[in-house]
Design brief:
Shape: elongated
Helix content: over 70%
Radius of gyration: 14 Å
Distance between the termini: 31 Å
Order of helices and strands: HHHH
Oligomer: single chain
Number of strands: 0
Length: 77
């Protein structure tokens, strides 16, 4: 019974993280990004890893995408 006290919060945190990244990838797709690229960029911004120079330019040079990435970085922190 004690294991539930550890597993449940971790599962809830993973679910919330998944939903945040999923929502952000949809928001990035709404700005015109391809699905796979949007998913990778959302996960990269949320986790703080994985940005490549050319890919990051697609985010930084677009004001709405930059705002989405900013909120993801804050939420991931």
């Amino acid at each position: 019974m004690h294991g539930v006290y550890y597993v449940a919060p971790a599962a809830i945190a993973l679910l919330i993280s998944f939903l945040v990244v999923r929502g952000a990838s949809i928001a990035l797709m709404m700005t015109g990004m391809e699905r796979e690229r949007a998913r990778f960029q959302a996960l990269s911004a949320f986790s703080g890893t994985g940005f490549t120079t050319r890919e990051a330019e697609a985010i930084v040079n677009h004001p709405q995408r930059r705002r989405i990435a900013t909120w993801l970085m804050i939420a991931g922190n």
